[in-house]
Each structure stands twice: as structure tokens, then as C-alpha cells.
Write a structure and sequence with these properties.
34% of the residues lie in helices and 24% in strands. The chain has three domains: 235 residues, Rossmann fold (3-Layer(aba) Sandwich), CATH 3.40.50.300; 179 residues, 3-Layer(aba) Sandwich (Rossmann fold); 77 residues, no CATH class. The radius of gyration is 24 Å and the shape is globular. The protein has 19 helices and 22 strands. A hairpin with a 3-residue loop joins strand 13 and strand 14. It is of the alpha/beta class and 507 residues long. The strands form five sheets. A six-stranded mixed β-sheet has the order 6-9-10-3-11-12, with helices on both faces. Strands 18-19-20-15-21-22 form a six-stranded mixed β-sheet, sandwiched between helices. The structure holds adenosine-5'-triphosphate (ATP) and magnesium ion. Adenosine-5'-triphosphate binds next to helix 1 and helix 15. It comes from Streptosporangium carneum. InterPro entries: AAA+_ATPase, ABC_carbohydrate_import_ATPase, ABC_transporter-like_ATP-bd, ABC_transporter-like_CS, P-loop_NTPase. Pfam families: ABC_tran.
């Protein structure tokens, strides 16, 4: 039985066509994946299904009937639930309150906290989340917040669940929990539409995959008649080779560290972390989600109060504020671009030009940035990062998720930082652009930059980094480089919390 039919649907924004005669269908009890590059139109299609947007032409049929006066409210009432790329939780309310937002169990209109907490527990368990339902949602790491969103979507027992990059902030264990939920929905005849840039995951969980490119459907394939390379070819329109660039020669003489930390500690987050960042090297911070990786980056950028020693160019330097960090040549691209990395209501141009104002301005006339110089710079960054935007004047929040991420990274480049700290640099980014970013980071390293990245993607850490430090409960438990840097060793240390060598010596 067909649950949903999207028939020749088109959509434009301000004269720019974003979807062109898009057609696909979803059966009851089916999991359909939508894949495509950043800006291909995936989220836009989903907004049409959830009633957030209305198509310019074409028809959407739900349960055999063309939807009329469709709206988020009607879609929800008809059993459509969704988890988005962007989180919608209220950070100050408890997990339980967030899960039942709008559907609180009440008696005589009063919210009963005890009920709420008791009813939240099984839902949280279902999504594999082991947290106290009374915790304020804002205190949870990003991945856990995404799972709370999922629990919230499940409260109404949806007929169609939409997951738009809902797994992007999750570690492998959490992704498996989500896929158990998906499998369970399928078994009960429910349908799921899933969008993700992690193709491996999609090839495991979905029944069929529809590929979008520049707003058009390129193909719909059954899972057993396609593979990774086939999908990438359809998405990108060409073969994609050498995803990862060559690494720094392992035996090349190493430059002195530009940034060194010894015994870096933050109560409750990390303890005794030693690391050295050298020009020309890309260092990774791996481990399961939330083992202190993010806190280390934030400390080095002066965002977290920390103890221990930090040295820049061999001299002790306090990194007590982002201002000081930036003055020492340290740049930071955070994982939560919406709240930390970007001014989303400002234009692409303003975001790209901000950190460079000092560079652009003649020494003593900070206020007279040449408009022409700024425009050149912005155009150049948009080209280099292949940011898909109608114009530099477009507001950042109107960009697709992956294109926002590109802006968050691009804005630092003209300032030529000496140390680049990146949290999850390719989250939500399509495979073609991932390749660009990997090659760009290596280029920057070759030009003398020291790079530190955190990533939940083991393949990325192994493929990109010269050395990976594995964190477990706030401590570095393993350092892998050269032939030892394999996905297997990395996953092992992440899960058990100590190195393979240690294990052998214990046995
Ligand atoms: N409200 C809007 N106003 C103007 N342009 C928009 C709006 N919403 C989306 N777009 C444009 O439509 C195109 C498709 O965006 P969409 O968010 O659907 O991409 P996507 O496939 O989800 O990409 P990503 O993988 O990066 O999330 C983009 O070029 C985007 O800038
Ligand atoms: Mg999107």
C-alpha cells in the first residue's frame, strides 16, 4: 500500500528553482532514503511533506488522497512526525517536558511532573538514551539532544517518521539505537523517510534510495541494486576518487609545536590531557561521543576555564578568552554552528567577512574596510568552498545545512590562523564537499598550519589525520599513528577505554 505519493512537485524561492518535477513514493512499512549533495533540495521536499511549505505545482497524496490546505498541524494530526537537522528543544526545560511538549499528561489542566517523568522513561529507553528525565535538555551533549527529539517524535506513534540528518551528531552506538527504532517501525507497517550524508548507514537501513541532484530526481534504486559508488556517481554526476589526500610523511622532520598543552584539566570534563600541535600536522581527537573532546577544543580557544599549562611557540601563554586565543593565531570552528559559529540572521557576506575585518582594514583605520576588497574576498571564499548561495547577500539561515557549515569554516581562512581547531568539520556535509574539505585541510597543513579535529566518524579520523588521540572519560587513553592508525584499533580503544598494547601486557 502506498502511504505517500510525491508527484511532479516543483518549488522556487525568489525565482530560483529548488525542486523541479520531483516524484517518488513511500510504501507502508518501507524505509526510503533521500540522498544528494548539500543544497540538492532534500530538506525542502521534506518541508513540503510536513506542511511547512506549499509546492508551486504538482501533487502530494497521503493515504491516496491529495493533501489540501496541508499545514504542520494537519500533517501531525495525520500521523506525520519529523526530526530535523536543527534542534528545537527548549534548553531550560527538562528532558521529560521536552518529550511531551504540547502533549503533557495533565489533570484539570495541571502538569503532573511525576507522570511526565514516569511516561518519559520508556520512550527514552526506546531510543537508547540513559539520562535522568529531569535533566534540563540544554545540559545534554548534542547527540543526546537529538535522541530526545526522536523520543518526542515517537510520542504520537507516527505513521510516517521523517529523519532529516537526525543521526548526524550521534556516535555509532546511538546510531544503532536509532536504527532499531526504525526497524521496529517498519515491522509495524510504519514508514520512514531518512536523509543522511553517511551513505554506509543508509545502505544498511533503507529499502530504497532516491537520489536528488540540483532539485531533480536522478534515480530511485532498491538497496540491493546499488552501492556506495553508484550513489555517489548519481549524486555528484561523476566518479569520485581519492576521498582523502596523502598524509604528511611520517619520518619527515617535525617542526616545533606551535601549541602545546600539558595536564589540561576541566573538572567533570577532562583531566591531564597532553597534546602538541605542530605545523604541517593534522591531529585527531577520537573516542565515543562526549568523552571530553569538545571541551579540550573549547579550552584551547579560551572558552572553558581550565587548569594545566598551555604554551604557544614554546612560551607559556594563558588562553583565558577567545580574544587571547585569536591573538595567538588560534581559530575555532564549533560543532554547533547555529549558536556558536555563525550569525544566522546576517548575510553570507557579513559572516565571511567578520573575522577578516582586521586583516582587511588598513592598520590604523579599522573602520574603513574597502568594500571592493571585502567583496573580492567573499566571492573567493564562496568559490573555494563551493558554497551554494543565491547571492552573498542571502541570509545564512536560508542556506542548506551543509552550506552553513561551509560558511562557518570558510570565514576563518583569510585570517590565516596558525592553529585551526575544528569540531566535527564535515558533519552534514556531502561526500563531494567532504573530499574538498579534507584536501583543503591538508593544503592548509602543508602551508604550515597546525590542525586539531574532533570527529565521531572513525573513517574520517583514520583517513585524514597523521595521529589520533583517543579519549575516554576525559582522558587520552591511546595515541595512534602510522600503521597503527586503523579503524579497528580506534574503535577498540574508544569502546574499552585503554590501548591494545596495555591489554597484551596485562594478559
Ligand atoms: N527559505 C528559503 N529561501 C531561499 N532559499 C532557500 C530557502 N530554503 C531553501 N533554500 C535553498 O534551496 C536549496 C535547497 O536547500 P535544501 O535545504 O533543501 O538542501 P538540502 O538538500 O537539504 O541540503 P543539505 O544537505 O545541505 O541540508 C538551497 O540552495 C537553499 O539555499
Ligand atoms: Mg538539508
Amino acid at each position: 500500500m502506498t502511504l505517500l505519493n510525491v508527484e511532479r512537485v516543483s518549488k522556487s524561492f525568489a525565482g530560483v528553482t529548488v525542486l523541479r518535477e520531483v516524484s517518488f513514493d513511500i510504501q507502508a512499512g518501507e524505509v526510503l532514503a533521500l540522498v544528494g549533495e548539500n543544497g540538492a533540495g532534500k530538506s525542502t521536499v521534506l518541508s513540503l511533506i510536513t506542511g511547512l511549505l506549499t509546492p508551486d505545482s504538482g501533487t502530494i497524496r497521503y493515504d491516496g488522497e491529495p493533501v489540501r490546505a496541508w499545514s504542520p498541524h494537519r500533517a501531525r494530526a495525520a500521523g506525520v512526525a519529523s526530526v530535523h537537522q536543527e534542534l528545537s528543544l527548549n534548553p531550560h526545560q527538562s528532558v521529560a517536558e521536552n518529550v511531551f511538549l504540547g502533549a503533557w499528561p495533565s489533570r484539570y489542566g495541571l502538569v503532573r511532573q511525576g507522570d511526565l517523568v514516569a511516561r518519559a522513561r520508556p520512550l527514552l529507553e526506546r531510543v537508547g538514551l540513559d539520562v535522568d528525565p529531569r535533566t534540563p535538555a540544554g545540559r545534554l551533549p548534542l547527540g543526546a539532544q537529538q535522541l530526545v527529539e526522536l523520543a518526542k517524535a515517537l510520542t504520537a506513534d507516527p505513521r510516517l517518521l521523517i529523519l532529516d540528518e537526525a543521526t548526524s551528531a550521534l556516535d555509532d552506538d546511538q546510531v544503532r539505537a536509532v536504527f532499531r527504532v526504525v526497524d521496529d517501525l517498519r515491522e509495524r507497517g510504519r514508514s520512514v523517510v531518512i536523509v543522511s550524508h553517511r551513505m554506509g548507514e543508509l545502505l544498511t537501513v533503507s529499502d530504497r534510495l532516491t537520489v536528488l541532484k540540483d532539485g531533480e530526481v536522478m534515480a530511485t534504486r532498491r538497496r540491493d541494486e546499488t552501492d556506495h559508488d553508484d550513489l555517489v556517481r548519481l549524486m555528484v554526476g561523476r566518479e569520485l576518487s581519492d576521498l582523502f589526500p596523502a598524509k604528511a610523511a611520517p619520518d619527515s622532520p617535525q617542526a616545533d609545536p606551535v601549541l602545546r598543552a600539558a595536564g589540561l584539566s576541566i573538572p567533570g570534563a577532562c583531566a591531564g590531557v597532553d597534546l602538541e600541535l605542530r605545523p604541517g600536522r593534522i591531529i585527531g581527537l577520537g573516542g565515543l561521543q562526549g568523552q571530553g573532546q569538545r571541551e579540550v577544543l573549547r579550552a584551547l580557544f579560551g572558552l572553558r576555564h581550565h587548569s594545566g599549562q598551555t604554551e604557544v611557540d614554546g612560551r607559556p601563554r594563558r588562553l583565558a578568552s577567545p580574544r587571547e586565543a585569536i591573538r595567538r593565531g588560534i581559530a575555532y570552528v564549533p560543532e554547533d554552528r547555529k549558536t556558536e559559529g555563525l550569525h544566522v540572521v546576517r548575510s553570507v557576506r557579513a559572516n565571511l567577512a567578520l573575522p577578516s575585518l582586521r586583516v582587511l582594514a588598513p592598520a590604523r583605520a579599522l573602520t574603513t574596510v574597502s568594500r571592493r576588497r571585502e567583496n573580492e574576498l567573499v566571492e573567493e571564499l564562496i568559490r573555494r568552498m563551493q558554497v551554494k548561495t543565491a547571492s552573498p547577500a542571502q541570509e545564512v539561515r536560508r542556506l542548506s545545512g551543509g552550506n552553513q557549515q561551509k560558511v562557518a569554516l570558510a570565514k576563518w581562512l583569510p585570517a590565516r590562523p596558525r592553529v585551526l581547531l575544528l569540531a566535527e568539520p564535515t558533519r552534514g556535509i556531502d561526500v563531494g564537499t567532504k573530499r574538498e574539505i579534507y584536501h583543503l585541510l591538508r593544503e592548509l597543513a602543508d602551508e604550515g598550519m597546525a590542525v586539531l579535529v574532533t570527529s565521531g566518524d572513525t573513517m574520517e579520523l583514520v583517513g585524514l589525520c597523521d595521529e589520533v588521540l583517543v579519549m575516554y572519560e576525559g582522558a587520552v587513553v591511546e595515541r595512534l599513528a602510522g600503521a597503527e592508525l586503523t579503524e579497528e584499533r580506534l574503535v577498540h580503544a574508544s569502546v574499552v577505554g585503554h590501548s591494545t598494547a596495555e591489554e597484551t601486557s596485562r594478559a
